[in-house]
Design a protein that fits this description.
Blueprint (H helix, E strand, L loop, with lengths): L1 H9 L3 H8 L5 E3 L4 E3 H22 L9
Antiparallel strand pairs: 1-2
Helix pairs in contact: 1-2
């Protein structure tokens, strides 16, 4: 399951990942939230994406591929 999750996320297929690898009532526990369901994962994904975009702007060398 974990490899399938990574493969789908790297391909940008969030909705397919949710269907295949997450229960409908998944519980997301973080320092900042306690949320349920696929919408919680969607929101978390968007927050992480925004944080990474800011990081890449601040640290341009972080935007290079590594082996």
């Amino acid at each position: 399951m974990f490899e399938d999750h990574l493969r789908l996320r790297m391909a940008g297929k969030l909705e397919e990942d949710l269907r295949h690898n997450y229960a409908d009532d998944v519980v997301l526990l973080t320092e900042n939230s306690n949320a349920r369901g696929h919408d919680a994962i969607r929101i978390s994904t968007e927050r992480l994406r925004n944080q990474l975009i800011k990081f890449v702007r601040i640290c341009p060398k972080a935007n290079r591929k590594v082996a």
